[in-house]
Design brief:
single chain; about 350 residues; alpha/beta; Rossmann fold; 2 domains; seven-stranded mixed beta sheet; six-stranded parallel beta sheet; 13 strands; globular; binds nicotinamide-adenine-dinucleotide
Amino acid sequence: MEISEIKVDGYEKVARCRDHASGLHALIAVHDTTLGPALGGLRMLPYVSEDEALFDVLRLAKGMTYKSAVGETGLGGGKSVILGEPSKVKSRALFEAMGMFVESFGGRYITAEDMNIGIPDLEIVKTKTRWVTGLSRESGSSGNPSPYTARGCFLGVQAVAHEVWGSTDLNGKHVLIQGVGAVGGRLAIMLKEAGAKLTICDINEARVKELSAKHGFAVVADDNHLDVACDIYSPCARGATLNDASIPKLKCRAIGGAANNQLLQPEHGDQLKKRGIVYAPDYVINAGGIINVGVEMLPGGYHEEESLRRIDRIPHNLRKVFEISKRDSISTQLAADRLAIERIQAAKAAKSPAKTR
Ligand code: NAD
């Protein structure tokens, strides 16, 4: 196994692993550990080149730094990627080698599930390193993050309502959800219980049918869902759906949903601001899952109560983001980044030795 470092400005450590015996070709990026060890998932994709994989892992690691800083997880940001077609190259030896690669970071990088990586894969990684999170509850780990992400999103939607209407009361508010999977489906039920009126859409017609029959949600076809006038739009399916084509069509006062990377480009945050639509930045409102996983790293190990206590701070963090957005006349997305940077700089200043005269 050959592990070599790649120097990248602004990143604490980036490394490549080539293991000819197992076929592993992987990268780990640690962006910043000021606030704690760098936690971020492992994804596996058939990248066309190492450069493409490097671009992805760097972008995602930095995103994790910001997400954790705003979510107050006590962690830093990192990420890892395996280059390869999941259906072809997954093997026990591959994930054992990945475990050794993670172990070589000595706890500075902690891994978890991400795209094309499942619990069984991580169980193998865990045989070579203890720096694995998000495994089953039975094994003492934090388990499925989705219910925690959904809870954070629900509290975030309340915070958004407070920002727009001056009250967290969702009674009678019309929420349109795109994507009613593990997070969006739970969120829909919680919102209904809080008195909101729901319209849902999903490309999975069976799922939509099941939920609407059980809970009485209104249904719209995914293709036309932006024609629906609503109070709050909640994207819970996939990324990049807030873009030049969709933003002019929006008929809502606010946006708050679980999907990652909702803005196609940062300037779409400005477009939303110009339209007077309050946008809850995705990585702030959907942090429930990472907050839950982060609790595993506390000295006493995982405790659900502690996780819920921390998730309850998401509305506080969103309020801070809204304040910064108004204070600095910037989009809420940029305001979230600014909050993250301010927190990291404050921690760095607190750590540096006091200056003597
Ligand atoms: P999921 O796969 O369980 O649900 C996604 C749903 O969206 C599915 O029902 C799918 O059919 C639907 N969908 C996919 N493409 C669609 C499209 N073009 N139009 C309409 N519906 C579409 O995923 P999830 O765990 O609920 O996550 C939802 C989003 O939240 C994802 O973007 C995910 O990255 C993000 N997220 C999830 C978590 C978590 O804890 N699960 C944490 C943070 C962020």
